[in-house]
Amino acid sequence: MTGQTDSSQPTTPTLAQLTTVGVGGAVDRFVEAQSEEEFIAAVRGADAEGLPLLVIGGGSNLLADDEPFHGVVVRDARRGISVLDDDAHAGVDAGAVSIVAQAGVNWDDFVAFCVDSGFSGVEGLSGVPGTVGASVVQNIGAYGQEVASSVSSVRVFDRESKRVSQLDRNDMHFGYRSSALKSSMYTAPATPADSYFPTPRYVVLSVTFTLQRNETNEVAFGQLAKALGVEMGERMPIADIRQAVLKVRAAKGMLEDMSRYLSPWMRGCKNFHIVTDVLSAGKLASHDRFTNVSGEAGFHQDFDRHSCGSFFMNPILDAAQAAALPEDAPRFDAVLPDGQPGIKTSAAWLIDHAGFHKSYQLHDGASAGLSTLHTLALTNRGGAKASDIAELARVIQDGVEAKFGVRLVPEPVVVGMDLR
Ligand SMILES: Cc1cc2nc3c(=O)[nH]c(=O)nc-3n(C[C@H](O)[C@H](O)[C@H](O)COP(=O)(O)OP(=O)(O)OC[C@H]3O[C@@H](n4cnc5c(N)ncnc54)[C@H](O)[C@@H]3O)c2cc1C
Questions:
Q1: Structural domain 307-415, CATH architecture
Q2: How many angstroms does the Cα of residue 134 sit away from the middle of ligand 1?
Q3: What topology does CATH give the domain 81-247?
Q4: Whether residue 106 has its Cβ less than 6 Å from ligand 1
Q5: 32 is annotated as an active-site residue
Q6: Where in the chain is the domain with CATH 3.30.465.10?
Q7: CA 33 to CA 299: how far, in whole Å?
Q8: Mind giving me the DSSP string for 186-207?
């Protein structure tokens, strides 16, 4: 079924209308699947025809080219969340609860459901845009939590074997912003694989989470502890942790623009009560410059609204690369892709110390720039093209490489452009 809602509307959206950064070209075919069968049929159909396939969730980790996407864009319209009863999840310990969420569920709707139900384990991931399906593709993480720690299994359609199967958490090979699904799309960092790009070999149909039945949890991140006025490691109500996370994210412009859900192409993708509540109160706007809402993916005076979140991953370096960094560069223990110990540094620190500060633009009045609130977010300030964002990204990559010898790798899935 196509996502058309009104005969005066075009029959397919553009990728600019489906992505948070608000850039990207026309789409040849758009399918909004209402059932698992429709979802699988759309994926199988595109693959059988040899057409490029983009399974899209919230479009919050995608930077797509200005050229048309000559393929099929598929979105899962299902929004079901079920709590499994005790018999259905034998083997899970007493304080735990198993919850299944369909791929199309908006991630923050899922977090809100868990927090309201008294299930702890994902409250630190409040306000991360996107869907449950995509959350396991890049193993979303924030404020001391990663989705990997609460996932028990993932139901997938395998585009290779053409079968539905269940991947358990070990099969997922979760790492920092990575998983087996994400790895299936690349042969090297930012280098798309021939077979499965821009959508992984395994299409997520639903995810089973194991959370704790507990109204409180430990505060696992310094900034959060500060916002809550407690010490790290102290237990706090998960509802309070959620509110603190949303507040801290808002101050950094790291919440998505809720007005996008008023657009005909995004309406229904997120719990409408939450959307209207947020918009009427203006309370989760990135900051005070929250202006009126125009309905169709409009642009506002707020420069920080349209982004993919953090644009570059924090580099994980080997000992020699890390030793070459200035002494005051941040260093954290990490694991290299080959399993060897590595050192993670901060992409934001490298960018800032290479001379690209918050609000940086290639020239005055440019339509793309660094967020005024967050060094790692590349923003569409209004009217930017994908090529403007890509040009800015390349200048930053080149500048950081020239200064520190480290090539930053984009975190979003970059479609139709080369940002190696
Ligand atoms: C303001 C902002 C803040 C952000 N903050 C964070 C953060 O704190 N932490 C973090 O980790 N990320 C963050 N992100 C990035 C983004 O929210 C996550 O990567 C999110 O999981 C993307 O979900 P999505 O549904 O929008 O995916 P999309 O952008 O729609 O797709 C991304 C990739 O996932 C694939 N995909 C989507 N659905 C499926 C499916 N069902 N099966 C298989 N593949 C699928 C797509 O094909 C594509 O390859 C932020 C983004 C924004 C805009």
A1: Alpha-Beta Complex (3.90)
A2: 5
A3: 3.30.465
A4: no
A5: no
A6: 81-247
A7: 29
A8: EEETTEE-SSS-SS-SEEEEEE
**Minimal-distance CA residue to ligand 1 atom 15:** 61
Please answer whether residues 415 and 65 qualify as being in contact, where contact means their C-beta atoms are separated by less than 8 angstroms: yes
Reported CATH class of domain 15-76: alpha beta
Query: Residue 2 burial (CB < 10 Å; 0-12/13-18/19+)?
Result: exposed
Catalytic annotation present for 201: no
Question: Looking at this protein, which amino acid is placed at residue 319?
Answer: A
Kindly state if the Cβ of 322 falls inside 6 Å of ligand 1. Answer: no
* Residue ranges of the chain assigned to CATH 3.90.78.10: 307-415
pLDDT digits (tens, 9 = 90+) for 274-306: 888 888 776 544 443 433 333 344 344 478 889
Q: 55 CB less than 6 Å from ligand 1?
A: yes
In the chain, CATH 3.30.43.10 sits at 15-76
What's the rounded mean pLDDT across residues 116-123? 96
Going by CA atoms, what residue is nearest to atom 4 of ligand 1?
A: 309
What is the predicted pLDDT for the residue at 91?
53
Q: Is there an atom of ligand 1 within 6 Å of 199 CB?
A: yes
Q: Whose CA is nearest to atom 10 of ligand 1?
A: 140
> For atom 19 of ligand 1, which residue has the closest CA?
61
As a whole number, the mean pLDDT across the chain is 91
For residue 110, the one-letter residue type is F
Is the confidence at residue 161, as pLDDT, over 60? yes
200 within ligand 1 shell (Cβ under 6 A): yes
Question: Can you read off the two tokens belonging to residue 233?
Answer: 């490691």
